[in-house]
Amino acid sequence: MYLAGEDERNVEGAEYEGRLYTEQRFEMLGAFGGQRFDVDLDTSHGRDTATFLVNEQTGGYGGSSGFSRN
Fold it and tell me: What is the pLDDT along the chain (70 residues), one digit of tens a residue?
């Protein structure tokens, strides 16, 4: 979604289903910033929500460890 520019996607797994979406907002958490994503889930334990940030630091390049050294 982040790289494809999608605003919304349905998600499902063995014990959950729901909607992952973004309003294309950039937010900060201390010194960490990125595009905000939200998810509304129906799980085997009830309804739940989550919010997380996605930060693209590597520009498509990364070390063998998978972490950016930039």
Answer: 666 778 999 999 999 999 999 998 999 988 888 889 999 999 999 999 999 998 876 565 544 455 444 4
Beta carbons of 34 and 56 less than 8 angstroms apart: yes
As a dihedral over the C-alpha atoms of residue 36, residue 41, residue 46, residue 49, rounded to 10 degrees, the angle is 10
β-strand pairing of 26-29 with 46-54:
unpaired
CA distance 46 to 42: 6
Residue of 59, 58, 56, 53 whose CA lies nearest to 26: 53
